[in-house]
Fold these 4 entries.
Entry 1:
Amino acid sequence: MLLRPAVRHSLARLRHIRAVPPPRAGGPAAAVFQEVRRDFGLLAPPVVLHAPQPPVLAAAWTMLRETLVATGSAPREQKEAVAAAVSFANACPYCVEVHGATLLGMRGGRDAAAISRGRFEAVTDPALRSAALWAAGRAGPDGLDGGADRGPHESAELTGVAVTFHYLNRVVNVFLDSSPIPPRTPAAVRATALRLLGRALGESARAHREPGRSLDLLPAAALPDDLGWARAVPTVAGAFARAAAAIGEAGERVVPAPVRALLEKELADWDGRAPGLDGARRIEDAVAGLPRVERAAARVALSTALASYRVEESSVAPLRAAGFGDGDMVALIAWSAFTAARRAGTLLARGAGTVSAPAPAPGSRSGPAPTLGSMPAPGLGSAPAPRSTPAPAPRSTPAPGSRSGSAPAPGSGSTPGSTPRPGSGSAPSPGSTPRSASAPAPGSRSRSGSTPAPALGSGSAPTPGSTPRPGSGSAPSPGSASAPAPGSRSGSGSGSTPNSGSASDDRRGR
């Protein structure tokens, strides 16, 4: 009974897009909704928010289902630990709460409580501890195997969970509220609600789920080389091959070619570390040479990949004005998030022993990293910072995922009387003129009157009511981050660790 109100709350507070009501979901979307209900017992908001783009909806579900949900070699408890640890590193309080609560519901005890609070070093179970530390980018020289004897199947499954959550964390940070529990819920009521939520999710997680049942939702596709870590488990490989094809096709339809080239260039040599103290300026420099609408699309794409909490209404408004519909917004965010998640997977797979690590690129960044455990993270009872969620701009309602009523596809001519869609123009020059970047503080989701976030390198913004975060100014190792309080957006950014989504202070301003 508790789960359905939580779902209704989350979908009612979607940002930038409107939820597709289940009765109106037809064809491919209806098939995905049916599978999600079958395996989860409810329509999980991080999945169903993709409904305006049905192929991307199927891709998101297939990745989640065949890695986290399907029964395999890796125990579900370790998968939930990886999901929670990646979500901590990506500063995604919604996912931290859900998967921390699920782990507590499955096993309880001090180890589950430590993971739900981001205190991974305190976990006594060697296999659980090594999985969480690896996922958070803080594994020792033995990587994922530290203290546990893992085979290739288990490693591939856990890497798949990590990559899936590098993707979902970014999407959730952009579109969903900070918590499945309504804001302003009293702390005692909130803690009780999360315990009951965890108990229900934990019971569902113990059930056997046959692998491969979601693969028919999408046509078979070749597995890209950078996802080769998945080959040990055919169902995981099949899920990521299909997802890469579906999300890639959506990106080609919606994301202008110069924007795709720009993000891929930014991530190609990225080693999972923060770029330094000029991150905000670098984004503005990178997009400055693009035409107006392409510049807006590039800013949203780079922010999604590197600091997803910074995708605000002011960033989305120019795209809406140019004709981006709900399906277009889902495609843009999904493509950007998945591109970053793929790079994160390559970095994490090296620590899982599923790929060999090439020599670092000349001039690659290195240095000590702050650890997630460098500041205590409050537990699941913390209340999120309240925020307002205005309705998206009015629009005509095309069929889910369709482009009717929106501006022409990238590279095509403009519709009479409309702003030309992105797709033309040249890639930015490295020396283009910097532009100022102003974004609401990560601790706030308010669309108006929010406190400006500090520019990258301007110092550490403390979590409301807490002392400033340690480690400010140092570059995080892949996946490492000082964790925010679950439910708080303050002082963290998704998208800078191998998890390409570290909550590092150095990302602030992105």
Note: DSSP finds 16 helices and no strands in the chain.
Entry 2:
Amino acid sequence: MGATLWGNLDLIVKVNNGEVIATDWLIENEALHVNGNILSEQDIWVEQLDENTYQVNAAVTFIPNAQTEDEAFKEAINKFSKIDIDKYYIEDTLNNLTETTIQIATVHFSDFENPSIGVYI
């Protein structure tokens, strides 16, 4: 197929050491290894929920091996129905790297739209 699927990575994370995560000026993960596959973050948003808990939403891309659109979505759904990572690292433009522990993680590959980065599906 050669096409790229766009999706949304949703995380609830806890900060391990009481650090405050910057919610602006974040650097996207170019190669986030999930379930033996690579997701590339294209944009990221972080919102603080309480003292140590944050919601992370990232627009991600995935390049499937499938030959048709339907097969590609099925492949992505199968590969990311469960997430095998327990740590997530957030870096800001000042090179502050914060390790977090993932509480909840999901990836959705259908109906992704983000006009701010020019993606309409």
Note: The first strand starts at residue 5 and ends at 15.
Entry 3:
Amino acid sequence: MRGRARHPTKHAAGLAAAGLRTHTVAMEMDRRSLLQGAACAGLAAGLFEPARAQLQLAAEGPRWVVTTQTQPWKENEGAQVRPIRLGEEADVVLNHEIRHQTMVGFGGCFNEMGWDALLLLPDDERDRVLEDLFGPDGARFNLCRMPIGANDFARDWYSYDETPDDLALRNFSISRDDTGLVPFIRAARRHRPDLKLWASPWSPPSWMKRNGHYAMAHNQPGWPDNGLPQGAEGKEGEDWFIQEPEYFDAYARYFGKFVDAYKARGIPISMVMPQNEFNSAQPFPSCCWTPQGLARFLPHLGKEMGARGVDIFFGTLERPDPALFETVFADPQAGPLIKGVGAQWAGKGAVPFINRAHPDLPIYQTEQECGDGQNDWRYARYAWSLMKLYLRNGASAYQYWNIALEPGGKSRWGWRQNSLLTVDIQTKAATWNHEYWLMKHLSHFVRPGMARIEATSTMGYDDVLAFAGDGAVVAVLSNALAQPSPIKLMLGNRMIELTLPADSFSTVELPA
């Protein structure tokens, strides 16, 4: 993970857009010279040491895996690797000398409804599914998210202490989690013992909120009722957590008791974020905060988390406004506690500005946008566009949302969403959806500690992400065309030639 950024004395509402545009133009002007330099260096190596290069290439061929809409994860053997030729140009230059963020990992979120779906499977099949998610031959997920209390894919609303005015938290208990989240996480950790977890609440206990209810908005007509009284609706841009020191203190201790309870069950929590989507008034568990309200709360939370060695990230940010982060980060008491930023949904619009202003501050993509329950190829293609946006702008973690759901993916509050896996209620059969294979194209090959590297093209090919580390270079590519697309990748003194199948995703892994 990258180091902690120097805390600013003041930062005015994020970067100016003009400044970012100037930086982008300068980068574009440098690309051709960068390509020419890389080509000359590679060609020189190829001319001076052709015999050794040929010998290495014969012994160390690439691994190439392809997924199409009808055939996922097919091992291909058609990639050709050879020394570059005099005057030859590549479609894409992979430069592992230019390194960007160091990757922390990939994963999803542990939700109650996901575990309920997996419980429909026979024990041996459920174990195979978890191996395919967390095991060395599967997606190799190593970093996952979990809720603190109920989220929108819980069976229903709950918190760990719904006793009104229990500021001493005498009635705190995570016993509800022993029926869902705890066995789910333990089952995953059997396949990935070093699995890292971070957590955030969707809502504090209802009595800690101004409206006394878990929700902040009425549901849509025809959708399940959430029981929110008329006049109790929340509003973005206001603090709906009670802004009193004794409530901040109790809520910070609530986080601490959560961390302690999971540690007692053999499940360490490495990081927390104070509130999921802190600007959004939702019909499911939610709570709006202002940046000033979060800045008031974080010193209390920092005291409890610091005593337990648990990091605090800012988030999750779901608005394209970097000033929401900068306001809290500039606070002299709250800012130094922030070790990273989590962004999702429209928060992706703030990520380039935050990364540009604080290049050493880790950024996590915390929840892939959720789809509509159809789990179709169209949405997998959209997910690829999200991956490129976040990872090219400094995200060191990329996280899917629902791991498993029943067909249609409907939540307790009526929202249909996608999932990596669908479990049929009648047949008890599990089906991997397209987005699982797309996630695996990155997470199986891109290991923690690898760095994103420069992948540059003057040929109009902009559909590639590349990484290097552990003696390997990984290129993840897409061909969105309706016909096969030949492509040449240059890596040092080597040219890799392959033909990408129509409408496909590919991962190519080579020795560095």
Note: Residues 17-48 form the longest helix (32 residues).
Entry 4:
Amino acid sequence: MNSPSSPSAVVPELIAVLDRLAALLREDKWGSHWADWMEKSRREIADSDFHGIERLLSAYGGMGSFNDLVSLSSSNEIDRLRTQARELAILIKNNADIGGS
């Protein structure tokens, strides 16, 4: 992940990551729940709704979390995107800047 000038600069990157992640999850028979979760988070983030960041981060951690998903296909890419989405969301959350202002 490169160092953007502001957290809002990573919002488009996070949206792209969530789009790709949801698409890969849709291809996996175990991933539809998490694809729905990523798509809902993505819509909220795209609408400058901070709840999308909170929703996304709440998917990580705890029993039965997104971290526990073991994909049968494209697992390396899903793992990479899962990590990237979390890192970007944390960056945005820590700076509380989603609207790009």
Note: The chain has a mean pLDDT of 85.
